Known about the structure:
The protein is mainly α. Helix content is about 45%, strand content about 10%. The protein contains seven helices and three strands; from the N terminus they run βαααααββαα. Strands 1-3-2 form a three-stranded antiparallel β-sheet, covered by helices on one side. β2 and β3 form a beta hairpin. α2 packs antiparallel against α7.
Amino acid sequence: MIQIRVVGLEKLQKSTGELGKWAKGPFRGRAAGKIRDDFLDEVGESFSSRGRSTGTQWAPLSPVYAAWKNSAYPGRPLLVLTGRMRESFDSNSRDLIYNRKQKNYKMLTLGTRVPYAGYHQSGTSKMPRRPLFVVSKEIGKRWGKYLSADLTNAWKGKRWRDR
């Protein structure tokens, strides 16, 4: 699960018009939806590319586990037994966490309610780390541009919120 927040909004909140409204809830706008869609695309790419989209090649399965998985779940890719975790990263899934209303739209949370996703993201003493999502510089810049576009529209007094 990741949380995103915009720091330093206090001074902008005193502004009038659309700029002040943006500062009171930066994730009310279009940027939040674009960030969610980008996040889902990146995680989906992770599942299909065996982790290469995160910048890390996933460690292979142990021979014993690989033999069991191939006999019990033939043809299933890495990280997929039942498919629940992969399906939880769908915009219509009940397991998807997309909460932009935290602290009056000042924080955005993205993730999944599937409890074992955290074990894959971080790894354990018995399982190597297989991150589903890594925030790279490129992704951070892209998400910053989405928020900046909303801010620019608010600055100009134009529509920036979701409708």
